[in-house]
Amino acid sequence: MSLTTCEWKKVFYEKMEVAKPADSWELVMDPNLKPSELAPGWKQYLEQHASGRFHCSWCWHTWQSANVVILFHFCLDRAQRTGSVRMRVFKQLCYECGTARLDESSMLEENIESLVDNLISSLREQCYEEDGGQYRIHVASRPDRGPHRSEFCEACQEGIVHWKPSEKLLEEEASYSDGSKWKALAGLDYNFFSRRWCILWGALCLLLAYLQFSFRSPDFF
């Protein structure tokens, strides 16, 4: 069992103990898991925007990816109060040496925690018919170095279409920034009691008083 697998299990069991203490859940790694091929009573959650670091076991090349795909199948036995989660992290090929060996990704604990939160949200929705809350989108701490290369991605080769999170978040961030900019401009235009407007009104009053005094006709010389 790899260190990353142990970390996944540790985080999952700790969070499920808090989320559903009355039920017993297990997490099993299954490299043969297929998307949408579900046994009766099983549900699916597909994480399409995880971030991870890959290390080539042949040439020792390392790379960061924000396009790691993780597939979960899960089932809850309500009578026995037991549940099972099967999980597959899709691998990537090294594009430096071109070897056909697929390499696994490693993830930071903080990344795993956010991904487990997403999994539990899906569990609550599909197994317990509860509101799972808002899903978390996690982007790699380092920016992507170029476009996603589908020919080296195991998930893409198996027909899973997944978007690039950095591009999606950049669009959302741009929309939010534009909205904030227009709100700020609107605040400057219509807040007549702001400090800037008070100074402007004061200067205008002084100018009017000066002009009135300057053009007043004298009573005598």
From TrEMBL:
Q: Which SMART domains match?
A: zf-3CxxC
List, in alphabetical order, the Gene Ontology terms for molecular function in this entry.
Answer: olfactory receptor binding; zinc ion binding
Which compartment or compartments is the protein found in?
Membrane
GO CC terms in record = cell surface; membrane
> From which domain of life does this come?
Eukaryota
The 3CxxC-type domain extends over 49-159
* BP term (GO), one: protein targeting to membrane
Q: How does it sit in the membrane?
A: Single-pass membrane protein
- Establish whether keyword Cytoplasm is in the entry: no
Q: Give the transmembrane region(s).
A: 197-215
Q: What is this protein called?
A: Receptor transporter protein 2
